[in-house]
Structure formats: C-alpha cells, structure tokens
Design goal:
GO molecular function, one term: pentosyltransferase activity
Shape: globular
Radius of gyration: 26 Å
Subcellular location: Cell membrane
Structural class: alpha/beta
Largest sheet: 7 strands, mixed
Distance between the termini: 73 Å
Number of helices: 24
Strand content: 5-15%
Helix content: 55-70%
Protein name: Glycosyltransferase RgtA/B/C/D-like domain-containing protein
Organism: Candidatus Shapirobacteria bacterium CG10_big_fil_rev_8_21_14_0_10_40_9
GO cellular component, one term: plasma membrane
C-alpha cells in the first residue's frame, strides 16, 4: 500500500466510526431487545448467570426466543467499563461495525488484489445507510456480519497459506453462536467455495481445521439448534396460520370447478411453502427494497429510502459485467450474494437486519464499477476531471441527505416504533413510587418489565431468585413477566379498577379510564406516549 492509500483507509475508518457513534446513546431510542441484551449482560457480569439463573449459557432464554450468546458476552466488558446504559450496550455494535469497514478493505484486497477497489468498497460501506443503521443498534446480526467477513478473509488467505484455515473455521463456527442466519450461510458458502476452488485446494490441509470446527459446533448440534428452532417456530413461514388458511380457501374454491385430485395437487403445504419462500427470496433483490422504499420495518431503515443509494445502480451493473471476466472471483461473489437471503426467506420478505449478510457484496460490485469506469475515463483527459467532480458531488450530496434525514427528520415520527418513553416513565415513577402500593404498566408497547430491570439496574440475584417476581412460560413458548415488586405489567389495563394508592401508566390508544389523569408523557411531536392515571380527581 502507498502512503496515501494508508491515509485514505484511516480517514475512511474515522468517518465510519464517527457516523456510527454520534449520539448513539440517544438515537435511535432503545428497544426491548436491546434492553434484554443489556440486562442479561449485566446479570452475567454481576452473577455469572442470565436473568433466568442459568450459568454462562450458550443461549439466553430472554423473552422465550433464545438469543445467541456472542453479542451479549461482548457487552459484558462494555458494561464493566461504562456502566449499564444505552451507550455500553450499543458500543460493541459501533466498534465491530466500524471494524467491518476495515475488514472489507482487506477482503477485497485479498480476493481481487486491488487496493483501490478495496478502498472504494470500504468507503461505500462506511457511508451505507443499511450498515450505518445496523451499527447503531445492539444487533447480533451486525456482529455476525463482521465475524463472517473476517472468516471469509482468512479463508481466502488460506489459499496461499494453509495455516489460515484454523482461524477461518474458528470464526465461521463462532458465527453460529452469533446470529441465526449464519447457521445457514456459513456451511452453504463453504461448500460452494470449496467446489469452486477444488483444483487449488489440498484436502489434507482442511481436514484437521474442519474437525476442530465440528467439535466446536457440537454443543449447538446436541442442543438441537435450540435458538434457531425457537426463532423459526415463532416467526417462520411454517408457523404462519395465514398460509394454512390460504391453502384451505384455495381448495374450497377449486373444488367447485375441478376434480378433487387436481385441487389437492394444486393447493398443498409443500407447494404453497415453496411459493412463499420463492416470493420472499426474490423480494431481497426487488428494486423497491434496494433503491426506493427499503422495507416496511421503520425501526431498521429510514422510510421511503432504499437500503442502497440510487446512484449505485449503474455501478452495480458495471461491476457485475466486469467480474464476469474473472470466473472464480465472480462465482464467489455471486454465491455470497445468493446465499445470504436464504435464512430470512424462511421467515418473511426482505428485512434489513435479517438480510444483512448480503453486505458487503453490493458495495464491492459498486466499487468495481466506480473504479473501472474511472479507468475508462482516464483515457479521455477532458472528461476525467469532470467525471471525478460529478461523482464526488453525487456521493457527498446523497450521504449528506441521508445523514440529515436520519439524524434530524427521522427520529421524531419514528419514536413510537422505537418504544420511546420508558426511561422518562420509570424516572418519574421512581420519584413517586413511595406514594403507591401498586403501580400498573400497560404492555401495549411490548415488554415493559425489561425496561424496568434495565433502567433501575435491578439486582440480578434478586430477580433470579423469583422473590416478589411473577413470571411464567405461555403455551406459545413466549415468557410472561407480570410483576416485579409493586410494579404490575398488565395486558388489559381497561379491566383494572384503581383503588386509592394505585397508579396506572397506559398509552392514549388504550385510555378508557373514568378517573383522574395525574400526568402525561409526550413524544417530541406532541403525541402522548403515556398517561399516568389515578382514581383521584384533580
């Protein structure tokens, strides 16, 4: 690398880190999954056990969805340094998200032997709306992406030096313990990679590292892939009752006009599941998701903006055409891109978080298009300078537009989706709680108990013991927490008849109480987040 390339890489990393860490403690607002990660890490730090009392678990029961452990364990030292707060829970994601930008540079350099394409790829990932938003939340997916890219980098290096197979297989296995999508991506990608490189790889060099990988993955196999299985059971297409209803309705209409045998062949579970899976899979490559609207999940992407910049489209096409000339490298990139959405297609349509493993392929292809187009214009001296200026302006303006939209305009209308208000609610109730015997909190926004545990830094030992705690597992395998001390978390606050010495916090949408309104907590746009209700008239 030349000095200016090293300087450029350093500046790109600083940019990536800055845009990911700026006000990360306040925006986006904390959500229940993040609070759960933080409290479980806090519990591990204080007791060595998770919130349910399990010692150093390989899956964290949490709300009943069984979170994978690696991100939670990375949060433990962060909490030890910074304390239990939003910043400490998100800092590992910021750090590894920024490091992903660096690792992407070295990945491209190793695979394509091009520092320049690597630098452009790193820059595009640094300013990627998709990756920036993922790196500003406590997401297992973001760490899973970093580990996957690092494992792939070491795998590519092993082609020249077989000793790199050892750390490569280790990190691929570690990805199994980090994010569920990696459990499909890693084995399929490895299989295809070795098929592509079969003439250049000596089998004896990968046998021992592969055995190590299988040994390290045994705990997951022995547990029956519990995290993945529970997650798929709760959000997968195979548990969607709407699909069964669709089959029954289709058969009912079909029976009116066609033979029964034909209708059974036309409307059945295997065929319908396959159709839904294919539809979900193709949605990841739709123009709307990539360039126009993004997904419908406003928690994870700015509304009405694609996960990629619109100007990347021509360079993506140019990059694809360019790499067609390099058969093996093209197949490796293409297989990465095509494998990445498989896991999420089992759960639903394109989702910015669950499809995050599609990064950084889009950026690599775009970077290739940018660099090869620049080389093309180098031979036309009158256009070279103009091309550079125009392209730089387009990139700068689009990035600035995203930053303004994300940091200034997006937070206010998105506050409801981000479960904003719990910090202010529990701060207010902490001051007043001595006046009340019972404090009721509505479950309208999700899981209010986890915010109580997090913001009050509730003693993990006391919570694990079950003292003054009411919680149980429902039939659908989700876990319910209904009481912690004098705090009661209720599903139907309208059924509560408040007595003297009791207070209820509920959203305006549920308001049906005839008593007095003590106070209200508002979002920044003036909408009411919580009403504090008593039976005392003002």
């Amino acid at each position: 690398m030349k000095w200016w390339q090293k300087l450029s890489l350093g500046l790109i990393f600083i940019l990536a880190f800055a845009v990911r860490i700026w006000n990360v403690w306040g925006q986006p607002t904390f959500i229940s999954d993040e609070a759960s990660i933080g409290y479980n890490a806090y519990s591990i730090l204080k007791t060595g056990k998770d919130e349910w009392g399990k010692f150093l678990p390989l899956t964290f029961k949490s709300f009943g969805e069984y979170k994978l452990p690696v991100y939670i364990y990375t949060v433990v030292p962060s909490i030890a340094i910074f304390g239990l707060n939003e910043f400490s829970v998100r800092f590992p994601s910021v750090l590894f998200g920024s490091l992903t930008v660096l690792v992407t540079f070295f990945l491209v350099k190793e695979l394509f032997a091009s520092d320049n394409v690597g630098l452009i790829s790193a820059l595009l990932l640094a300013i990627s709306p998709w990756h920036i938003q993922a790196s500003r939340m406590a997401l297992e997916a973001n760490l899973g992406l970093f580990i996957t890219i690092l494992a792939a980098l070491l795998l590519f290096k092993a082609k020249k030096n077989s000793k790199f197979y050892w750390p490569s297989f280790f990190f691929f296995v570690l990805s199994f313990y980090t994010y569920n999508s990696c459990r499909i991506f890693a084995p399929v990608f490895l299989l295809i990679y070795f098929l592509i490189q079969r003439k250049d790889i000596r089998i004896k060099n990968i046998i021992k590292p592969m055995i190590l990988g299988l040994v390290l993955i045994l705990p997951i196999i022995c547990s029956g892939f519990v995290g993945s299985r529970q997650r798929l059971y709760k959000v997968g297409i195979f548990s969607d009752p709407g699909i069964v209803n669709q089959i029954n309705q289709g058969r009912g209409e079909c029976f009116k006009n066609y033979p029964k045998a034909f209708c059974v062949l036309r409307y059945n579970r295997p065929l319908t599941y396959a159709q839904v899976f294919i539809k979900n899979y193709l949605s990841h490559f739709s123009f709307g998701f990539l360039f126009l609207r993004g997904s419908g999940f406003s928690q994870y992407n700015v509304p009405n903006q694609g996960v990629l910049y619109f100007w990347e489209l021509p360079f993506l096409i140019w990059g694809l055409i360019y790499w067609l000339k390099s058969k093996k490298e093209f197949l490796i990139l293409l297989s990465w891109l095509l494998i990445a959405p498989l896991a999420n297609s089992l759960t639903g349509t394109a989702h910015p978080v669950r499809a995050i493993l599609m990064l950084p392929v889009f950026q690599i292809l775009s970077a290739t298009g940018i660099f090869s187009s620049f080389v093309f214009f180098l031979e036309r001296k009158y256009f070279k300078f103009l091309y550079l200026v125009l392209l730089s302006l387009i990139i700068l303006v689009s990035f600035a537009g995203f930053v303004i939209k994300y940091f200034i305009y997006y937070p206010i209308p998105a506050e409801w989706n981000w479960q904003m208000g719990y910090l202010e609610l529990y701060q207010k109730l902490e001051v007043q709680e001595a006046k009340y015997e019972k404090i009721y909190i509505s479950k309208f926004y999700g899981e209010p108990h986890i915010f109580y545990l997090f913001y009050r830094k509730f003693d993990p030992s006391k919570y694990q013991s079950g003292e003054e705690v009411e919680r149980y597992d429902r039939e659908d395998q989700w876990s319910n927490v209904d009481r912690i001390g004098k705090y009661f978390f209720v599903q139907e606050p309208g059924k509560i008849s408040l007595k003297p010495g009791e207070i209820l916090a509920e959203p305006l949408q549920e308001f049906s109480f005839a008593g007095g309104i003590s106070e209200s907590l508002e979002y920044r746009d003036g909408r009411i987040a919580f009403l504090l209700l008593t039976n005392e008239k003002k």
